[in-house]
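Slide 14.
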Amino acid sequence: MTYANDEMTMVLAIPDNPVKIIAPGRFRDDRGWFSEPYNEKRALALGLDCRFVQDKHSLSYATGTLRGIHFQVPPHGQSKLVRCVRGRILDIAVDLRKGSPTFAKSVCSELSAENGCQIFMPVGFGHAFLTLEPDTEVLYKVTDYYAPRCDGGIRWNDGDIAIDWPLTGARPQLSAKDKKLPFLRDFDSPFDYDGRPLAPLDY
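Slide 15: predicted structure.
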């Protein structure tokens, strides 16, 4: 774990992991709390060497809404910084980097309005989440603008990725687009491996 020297600095789990958990500090008093979810100087000090250009915000009405597995391919690949501002989600990052020893492996973390944690995933990772409560809102920052011709995805229940979704036998709420996403076997990854294998998240 990497800790900084003031209460507003983010906490990073496993600094050498390409996917990172970030927990911004919260100042609490009898009124509630105050937080600084993003600070570029602190992010750079913690290894997030990227510039975010766009924020995205989703509302999912039903528990069991599943969005993903999504990504953008080069030249408009996107790193993402994801947080949940209302409700709870299980957030997933999938390694799609060609040549990676952890190719098709995934890691997950529960993000909630209560815990305030965020997940950072660089270009080369697919992103998906499942809502665990109704009326859940998710915000995330991306490092490139939406480019329809570079928009990509993998089917949520792909057997080669084998995400253990906590659905307890229920079918997820999916968009028409996500129901038709291709399988991993049909995806020729354009993402390069950078020498950092995916490690389990530990925080």
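Speaker note: The first helix runs from residue 40 to 45.
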